[in-house]
Design a protein that fits this description.
Elements: H1 7-24, E1 35-36, E2 50-54, E3 57-65, E4 71-81, E5 92-108, E6 111-120, H2 126-132, E7 136-137
Parallel strand pairs: 1-6
Antiparallel strand pairs: 2-3, 3-4, 4-5, 5-6, 6-7
Keywords: Signal
């Protein structure tokens, strides 16, 4: 006497197969190229924890949301050296909770990079807001 699978057994096998396929997917194991961000340090990376705008302005401790989307926002500490009277004697202002916003994607040397950035923080002075809150072209390796 041969044992024929019941329709309940067939449905269970199909459901398990569907769950396994959705968990592994056809692209499982295939890596999707990540979007990188480059800065003055010339060390591009995905979701960097540090971003150097100039030698005297940098963000650190960045935690990102929506990385890999058309735009992303990193929140961290913004350090600004006032460079008054000179940078070696300047006061360093630290603004906790500053946001580094990035947008757009550019292909450079075969890799994807966020194309623009800006820094947003309500504690920026009007002069700092004019300087850092506008969209600025981000670096890519071919800039160096």
């Amino acid at each position: 006497m041969s044992h024929q699978p019941t329709s309940r057994h067939s449905v269970l096998v199909l459901v398990l197969a569907a769950v396994l396929l959705s968990a592994t997917g056809p692209l499982a194991g295939a890596s999707t190229p990540s979007i990188r961000l480059d800065d003055l340090s010339q060390h591009p990376s995905a979701k960097p924890t540090r971003f150097e705008v100039t030698n005297d302005v940098a963000l650190s401790g960045l935690r990102w949301s929506h990385w890999g989307a058309p735009s992303a926002t990193g929140t961290g500490a913004l350090r600004i050296n006032t460079c008054r009277p000179i940078c070696a004697q300047g006061r360093v202002r630290v603004l906790q909770g500053a946001q580094l916003q990035v947008r757009g994607v550019r292909i450079d040397q075969g890799s994807r990079y966020y194309r623009q950035y800006r820094i947003v923080d309500p504690a920026l002075s009007p002069a700092e807001r004019a300087m850092y809150s506008r969209w600025t072209n981000a670096y890519v390796p071919s800039n160096f």
